[in-house]
Design goal:
Helix content is 60%, strand content 5%. It is mainly α. The strands form two sheets. A five-stranded mixed β-sheet has the order 4-3-5-7-6, covered by helices on one side. Helix 7 (141-157) packs parallel to helix 9 (176-193).
Length: 498
């Protein structure tokens, strides 16, 4: 291997490590309540005998859980360490893909590495109004899909269009929504880079124009989207701000529109400087953004298309923000950082240090990097760990339906970490219902049964046992009288329902 290749790999590895240290690692949080739980259920079918639909149904369109389960079985690496391994690999792949892209758009090394460095530092940058980060602090199929999409983009920029196809296909298999958005962007990128293809597309459009309306009707075979939605599904949908596009705050609209304006400006500047590939890349981002934004405003607007809301069309901004940090960092390197070592030191300290501080505020009660071998100081994680080790696999738990938002809980998933069934919650399961409408009635019935949880006494827990079969509860310590409690710490108690 040439010495420059060693240097490049070393820098990619260093920025990947910096990015990982800045973002932290928190398995079992938020969406991992679905993904990690599904992997564990695949590995041990005896787990989750109750309400498994709250994570299994969402996984119908993805191969992520079965693929991870096969990896664990084949390698013998425990699932907790396998997740950490693939999280590290996904970060490395994203950084490598970003470097592969930016080196084709900028000639000077300072611009290339500044783009990579800023993207790695900004992994936990919130994407306007979408409840997304550029990368999640746990292994998420979106992380892997993002890496594959970015690698596909680098192949298209290199003029090797067909090499992008298997990458995009695998991204779609892992995360259908992000894969579809990646395919959409790559189509726009291919069109802007290939002049003959652009001319053919215009000619095709001219021929199809008289039949445009008929064609539009023909490509929408999903009549179910016009069916009246169920009330529980609507209730779950309306609890999620990112579905209510026309209720976004002005700064959220700014976060959606401003990046497209910046890329439009970048395209014009690059064209004037003779940077053809950069100009076309920025143009592709603008065209992709305008198309997807228009689509989102249609889908999230009229009530007749509300069935398509679960496609979360505003999440197209995820890719835009990846490219925003990449190209923005490259310009910062070209015009500000250059080859000045002290400027680079200040830049890396501010970018990575700022994101580190922000993450420590979000996860103040948990370790910044939650290693599988480390004992948890978080009382919620201590309770989940005791439950996993000391209760029967078929135990059916009830706990505060909004436990994820409790002070110090920090959105860790009971199912994923305690590895036990639970009654539906009012946070993560609500999000699942927005994507799997048939879960709505069961979700609503279980939530209604848990109303007034903070005031529950023995009779209320016995009612849950009679109605649903709940035989264990996780409650605040000291617990209500009459429960047979087996364990407690300074915050919580684990009890059997007599």
């Amino acid at each position: 291997m040439h010495i420059s290749s060693y240097r490049n790999f070393s820098l990619i590895l260093a920025f990947s490590l910096l990015g990982f240290c800045a973002m932290g690692y928190h398995p079992g949080i938020e969406d991992d309540g679905v993904y990690l739980t599904a992997v564990k259920a695949d590995l041990n079918p005896a787990l989750y005998p109750h309400d498994a639909a709250f994570f299994k149904l969402q996984m119908r369109a993805s191969v992520f859980d079965t693929w991870m389960a096969h990896f664990v079985r084949l390698t013998g690496i425990p699932v907790a360490w396998s997740e950490l391994l693939w999280q590290s690999i996904s970060i490395l792949l994203v950084v490598w893909a970003c470097w592969s892209i930016v080196r084709q758009l900028f000639r000077d090394a300072a611009a290339q590495w500044a783009g990579v460095a800023l993207t790695a530092a900004m992994f936990t940058l919130p994407v306007a109004g979408t409840a997304l980060y550029i990368m999640d602090q746990h292994l998420h199929p979106r992380n892997l899909a993002t890496a594959l999409i970015l690698l596909a983009v680098s192949r298209i920029l290199a003029g090797k269009l067909w090499q992008s196809a298997p990458l995009l296909g695998l991204a779609f298999a892992l995360h259908p929504l992000m894969g579809a958005l990646g395919i959409s962007f790559c189509c726009f990128l291919a069109l802007t880079l290939c002049a003959p293809l652009r001319m053919r597309l215009r000619a095709f459009g001219a021929r199809m124009q008289p039949r445009g309306a008929a064609t539009a009707v023909a490509i929408v075979p999903f009549g179910w989207i016009f069916a009246p939605p169920s009330q529980p599904w609507l209730e779950a949908l309306h609890s999620r701000h990112w579905f209510r596009l026309y209720e976004w705050e002005w700064y959220e609209w700014l976060g959606a529109i401003a990046p497209l304006l910046l890329f439009w400006l970048a395209a014009r500047v690059a064209a004037k400087r003779g940077e053809v590939k950069l100009a076309r890349f920025a143009t592709a981002i603008v065209l992709y953004g305008v198309f997807q934004q228009s689509l989102a405003m249609i889908i999230l607007g009229p009530q007749s298309l509300i069935g398509l809301s679960a496609l979360e069309p505003m999440r197209y901004l995820h890719l835009v923000y990846v490219f925003l940090t990449l190209i923005g960092g490259a310009y910062l390197g070209r015009y500000v950082l250059k080859a000045q070592l002290w400027r680079w030191a200040v830049f890396l300290a501010l970018a990575n240090g700022g994101m580190f501080v922000a993450q420590r505020q979000l996860f103040a009660a948990s370790a910044h990097i939650e290693l599988p071998s480390a004992a948890a100081a978080n009382p919620w994680l201590q309770a989940f760990d005791w439950i996993r080790r000391n209760t029967p696999q078929d135990a059916y738990f009830a706990l505060d339906p909004r436990y994820m938002a409790a002070p110090g809980e920090e959105y860790h998933s009971f199912r994923a970490l305690a590895e036990r069934s639970q009654l539906a919650d009012g946070i993560k399961d609500t999000s699942v219902v927005t994507k799997v409408s048939e879960l709505g009635p069961a979700w609503k019935r279980q939530l209604q049964a848990q109303q007034g949880w903070s005031g529950f006494q023995l009779a209320d827990f016995e009612r849950l046992k009679a109605g649903f079969g709940v035989d264990w509860v996780l409650v605040a310590d000291p617990p209500p009288a009459g429960l047979a409690c087996r364990w407690h710490n300074r915050r919580l108690a684990v009890c059997r329902v007599p």
